[in-house]
Design goal:
Oligomer: single chain
CATH architecture: 2-Layer Sandwich
Shape: globular
Radius of gyration: 12 Å
Largest sheet: 3 strands, antiparallel
CATH topology: Alpha-Beta Plaits
Distance between the termini: 25 Å
CATH class: Alpha Beta
Number of strands: 3
Length: about 70
Amino acid sequence: MDNSVLIFSGSRFQADLAKGLLEGENIPFLLTSEHGAGFVLRAGDILEQYYIFVNPADQKRAEELLAVLE
């Protein structure tokens, strides 16, 4: 995803909700985490921060969708 834009950061629970909303509207996205799976296995995902990126062309639509999570 070249030139992708950050539209979300939050907990795993929030990221799962955001992911479902974006998938429901067929908006392609990239979900990443701050520390990665190794950290989550050792410390649990309560301390992990998740990020969702989308293509610039989808940014406005994605932000409108995710506004319900704020």
